[in-house]
Design goal:
- It is a single chain.
- By secondary structure, the protein is mainly α.
- The protein has one domain (about 1-135): Four Helix Bundle (Hemerythrin (Met), subunit A), CATH 1.20.120.10.
- The protein is built from five helices and no strands.
- The longest helix has 26 residues, at about 110-135.
- It is globular.
- It starts with a helix and ends with a helix.
Length: about 140
Amino acid sequence: MKNEGAHMRKRWQALVFVSALVVLGAGPRQGPELGNVMREKLAYSQKLLAAVVTSDWTSLETNSRELERLTKDPRWLVLNYPEFVRHSSAFRRSLQELHTAAVQRDLETAPTAYVAVTLQCVECHRYLARARIAK
């Protein structure tokens, strides 16, 4: 039982480490600018979560728009691969759905839309991690 807990802790530590690499993983070709924009994305995502759970519609509207604006930043667009563009477009669509839920003050749709935004992040980061491993 004790070994099992240590094993799980190591697995979680490894997961956190890999996740940090993916989130902050601006490789040599991508430069630190992409790492900075990903940190900004994370900060907006945290604000979105806080807004969803507190039904802070103004913050939800503002931060979803700011995050969408960030996706048009040249630092974001440095990954100009077709697959990244597809993921980025899906992310933007999910942000638009979240923004619409915020404008409509929709208590049912807002949490689901937030989860969709988060899942788009995870899917893209998993894609990028696999692409790096393949190299």
